[in-house]
Design brief:
The chain has 287 residues and is mainly alpha-helical. The protein has 2 domains: 187 residues, Cation efflux protein transmembrane domain (Alpha-lytic protease prodomain-like), CATH 1.20.1510; 86 residues, Alpha-Beta Plaits (2-Layer Sandwich), CATH 3.30.70. The protein has a 3-stranded mixed β-sheet with strand order 1-2-3. Helix 8 links the parallel strand 2 and strand 3. Helix 1 packs antiparallel against helix 4. The longest helix is centred in the first third of the chain and has 30 residues. The two termini are 50 Å apart.
């Protein structure tokens, strides 16, 4: 997909200059961000695949998240630049060769559809790949917009359609960037994944046999799809810790898809001997 995007980006730049179309140049600028994003995604994938070591004990999975954050920022920059130029052109629309715009944009759409098909398999499991997929999706929408503007200019002589469509493309790019940035920041800030309910996890663990309470519960993501959990589980003094752990790990895996969990089992009598003030703020959100 990187090779396809780089090749057609050059074609769109040449086509935009020859036809005078801002919509094509906007699409080419967006495709430039696609090329950068795909190169970044490729590099981040390689870095994230490296094994954990002494310094990076969790591995380098967050390289993908940093790449997604950079992709989101690039999308915002492209959208702002296109919007500024489009507003200027709306005031004095230049002459545009509509039929040429339509033909070149159609080729861009084909390239983007191929790219979406290539990247589709990995977007569900990797925020990094999802960021690249969003780049290509918004670029496909941009190609559709450029095709529409080319037809309007060619068929109806509406010169203002080219910058107007460019503004629409910028809005679509910003929409994609917002969702990508939000997901990347959530991971970096170690927020609870949006598909998981912290209260439901707490209640599920607390309902297990011999468990009296659960505190200091934290759920976060290391990288795309790599969810971690840690908590303290208070159990009856007569309970066998190994049985409680087995039940808790099974519950977390089967009900919530959490396979990486660190559980500290505390006998009920131990809870009263430990100064709760030490972790009160972190253990209980209501504290």
């Amino acid at each position: 997909m990187l090779a396809l995007a780089a090749t057609y980006m050059v074609a769109e730049v040449v086509g935009g200059l020859l036809t005078g179309s801002l919509a094509l140049l906007a699409d080419a600028a967006h495709m430039l961000s696609d090329v950068a994003a795909l190169a970044l995604a490729l590099a981040a994938n390689w870095i994230a695949s490296r094994p954990a070591g002494h310094r990076f004990s969790y591995g380098m999975a967050r390289a993908e998240i940093l790449a997604a954050l950079a992709q989101g920022a690039a999308l915002v920059a492209v959208a702002v630049l296109v919007a500024i130029e489009a507003i200027e052109r709306l005031q004095a629309p230049p002459a545009v060769q509509g039929l040429g715009v339509f033909a070149i944009a159609t080729g861009g759409l084909v390239v983007n559809l191929v790219g979406l098909w290539i990247l589709n398999a990995g977007k569900a499991s990797s925020l990094n790949v999802r960021g690249a997929w969003l780049h290509v999706l918004s670029d496909a929408l941009g190609s559709l917009g450029a095709m529409a503007s080319g037809l309007l200019v060619w068929g109806l002589g509406w010169a203002w359609a080219d910058p107007a469509v460019s503004l629409l493309i910028a809005a679509l790019v910003l929409f994609s960037a917002w969702h990508l940035l939000r997901e990347a920041v959530d991971v970096l800030m170690e927020a609870t994944p949006r598909n998981l309910d912290l209260d439901r996890i707490r209640e599920s663990l607390a309902s297990l046999a011999n468990v009296t309470s659960v505190h200091d519960l934290h759920v976060w993501s290391i990288g795309s799809g790599e969810i971690c959990l840690s908590c303290h589980v208070v159990v009856a003094d007569s309970a066998a810790p190994s049985d409680v752990l087995a039940a808790a790990y099974h519950e977390l895996g089967s009900q919530f898809g959490i396979d990486h969990a660190t559980l500290q089992v505390e006998p009920q009598s131990f809870e009263h001997q430990t100064p709760r003030s030490v972790c009160a703020g972190a253990c209980d959100p209501a504290a």
